[in-house]
Specification:
eight-stranded parallel beta barrel, 39% helix, Xyl_isomerase-like_TIM-brl
């Protein structure tokens, strides 16, 4: 299997050091972010591209356009700016996340947003990675909803799914769509006290033997079904971000996953 690393795995590392760490881990694919750390807001795209080339890594995506399914206000301008940045830095895709504040978004609005985003992506040769969020307050929880909306928007070939093991588990999903999946995010929850309905990004750590999200079975199912893309670490927990040696921790998680497979 192919491992990739999202910058959120080691957000305190400068981008060049993060790229170097990824290569040292034996991986060659990375994801950069526009939230924490905000690479888009702090570095010229040309510098990002140069750093990636120097380290020998490929930028899979910029994470993330939010809330992509509410196509109003400044969203279109932000989408164009992110897409332009992606092209200039050498990224291949944009991660697209739905509104996640308890507000219901009509299905027709989801389809309309995908239609509006389609030319922005196609004109730049980018893929849109549509990521259902499994939280109860999410406006798009299920992958089947995303797939149907992509079809209704005529977005086949432009959009792929982001399969996130955390959100797959939270949404209670059982179906896998390897032919639709462009990237997989992996993270674990090990806190035995938190109820599934109360799991948040802050609970997401690296995958180890205490994982409650069935990462190993999800990974096995995806591989068995034919998915051959990267699996990208995306832990949000402060205890991961504060690690003195994130490379060692990631190496340990990689070894655990490989041993389980």
């Amino acid at each position: 299997m192919r491992f990739a690393i999202n910058h959120i795995s080691a957000p305190k590392l400068a981008l060049s050091k993060f790229f170097e760490m990824t290569k040292a881990l034996g991986a060659t694919e990375v994801e950069i972010r526009n939230d924490l750390p905000d690479v888009m807001g702090t570095m010229p795209a040309s510098d990002v591209k140069a750093a990636a080339e120097a380290a020998g890594v490929t930028i899979l995506s910029i994470n993330a356009l939010y809330p992509f399914n509410v196509w109003s206000g400044e969203l279109a301008a932000r989408a164009v700016a992110m897409a332009d940045y992606a092209v200039a830095c050498g990224a291949k895709a944009l991660v697209m996340c739905p509104l996640n504040d308890g507000t219901e978004v009509p299905y027709d609005d989801l389809v309309a947003a995908l239609k509006a985003m389609k030319p922005i992506l196609t004109e730049r040769g980018l893929t849109g990675l549509v990521e259902p969020l499994g939280f109860l307050i999410s406006s798009m929880r299920k992958k089947e909803t995303a797939i149907q909306a992509i079809k209704d928007a005529g977005g086949e070939g432009v959009y792929k799914l982001m399969h996130d093991t955390f959100h797959h588990y939270l949404a209670g999903e059982t179906a896998f769509y390897p032919e639709w999946t462009g990237l997989v995010h992996i993270s674990g929850v090990v806190d035995p006290a938190v109820d599934v309905a109360d799991m948040l990004d802050a609970h997401r750590v690296l995958v180890d033997t205490g994982d409650r999200l069935e990462n190993i079975s999800q990974i096995k199912a995806l591989l068995a079904a034919g998915y051959d893309g990267p699996f990208s670490f995306e832990p949000f927990a402060a205890e991961v971000h504060d690690l003195a040696d994130p490379q060692a921790a990631l190496a340990e998680s990689i070894a655990y996953i490989e041993n389980q497979l």
